[in-house]
């Protein structure tokens, strides 16, 4: 499954959702992304974060896309930082990953 900068934004949304407890029942992938929470306050994600992202994108892309496709969850996110996540985790990009989901 291809990765994308769109997915990076989705991952950041998931982290915020996990931190606030919003919509956890609808987004079962959120808890797996907790290792990436520190990335929101640093310049580079940890290896643990990158491994978690790779796993969730590979096995639960539909869950991440549900977050992305709900614009109400996008408030307060540093999109610029989120879009750098694939670069720091050495993930390839495909900006259409969540289209039609």
Automatic annotation (TrEMBL):
Any GO CC annotation of this UniProt entry = side of membrane
Q: Which UniProt keywords apply?
A: Cell membrane, Disulfide bond, Glycoprotein, GPI-anchor, Lipoprotein, Membrane, Signal
- Which Pfam families does the UniProt record give? LTP_2 (PF14368)
Organism of origin is Sesamum radiatum
Q: Where in the cell is it found?
A: Cell membrane
Q: Which SUPFAM superfamilies match?
A: Bifunctional inhibitor/lipid-transfer protein/seed storage 2S albumin
Per the record, membrane topology reads: Lipid-anchor; GPI-anchor
Going by the entry's taxonomy, the superkingdom of the source organism is recorded as Eukaryota
Its name, as the record gives it, is: Bifunctional inhibitor/plant lipid transfer protein/seed storage helical domain-containing protein
Every copy of the Bifunctional inhibitor/plant lipid transfer protein/seed storage helical domain together lies at 29-98
User: In which family does this protein belong, per the annotation?
Assistant: Belongs to the plant LTP family.
Q: Where is the signal peptide?
A: 1-25
């Amino acid at each position: 499954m291809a990765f994308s900068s769109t997915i990076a934004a989705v991952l950041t949304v998931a982290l915020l959702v996990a931190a606030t407890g919003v919509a956890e029942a609808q987004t079962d992938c959120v808890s797996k992304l907790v290792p990436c929470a520190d990335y929101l306050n640093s310049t580079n994600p940890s290896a643990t974060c990158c491994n978690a992202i790779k796993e969730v994108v590979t096995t639960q892309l539909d869950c991440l896309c549900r977050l992305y496709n709900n614009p109400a969850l996008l408030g307060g996110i540093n999109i610029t930082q989120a879009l750098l996540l694939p670069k720091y985790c050495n993930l390839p990009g495909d900006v259409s990953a969540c289209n039609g989901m």
